[in-house]
Amino acid sequence: MDLAKSHIAGKKTRDKTAGARDRGHLDSSGFPQVYYAVNPATTTWSSLVPVIRERLSSPSHHVRVIPFANWISVVRRSGDSTGPEDLASRNPALKLVDFLEAIQQQAEKEVPSRVLDVEKTLRKSEAMKILGPVNATWMEE
């Protein structure tokens, strides 16, 4: 997982845009420079699940964790039933099921999930350099 806290991503934007006119905002090809607000410090989903389960559980309801592939199957099957109501409003995850399956396939192949290069961002933003991975404290905020 490579999520970034929004206020840190905002600091990155501020770091980059302060004085941008003076420094120039185009790259050597004359195109606008692009900086990705993606957390450079990744973490695993399995390290966050206990915090999420604890937060969502209550004395009357225990959250059961199932493998990602099983959950995707449940989502896909929820679209198989026919009914008068809009399926996407009944289960919004249906809108993302193809995307979720692609993530699962990528994970099974052990392909790194990072597709955005953050090196230029790190050279320009102190806030992003010191961000750190998503952790339990962030999840509780």
Write the layout of secondary structure elements.
Elements: H1 6-17, H2 20-23, H3 45-56, H4 68-78, H5 87-90, H6 97-108, H7 119-124, H8 126-129, H9 136-140
Helix pairs in contact: 4-6
Q: What are the low-pLDDT stretches, counting only 5+ consecutive residues below 50? A: none
Strand content: under 5%
Number of helical elements: 9
Helix content: 40-55%
- Please compute the radius of gyration using only Cα atoms: 20 Å
Distance between the termini: 18 Å
SSE-based structural type:
mainly alpha
Order of helices and strands: HHHHHHHHH
Q: What global shape is seen?
A: extended
How many strands appear in the DSSP assignment? 0
Largest beta-sheet characterization: none
Compact overview of the structure:
The protein has 141 residues and is mainly α. It has helices spanning 6-17, 20-23, 45-56, 68-78, 87-90, 97-108, 119-124, 126-129, 136-140. Helix 4 packs antiparallel against helix 6.
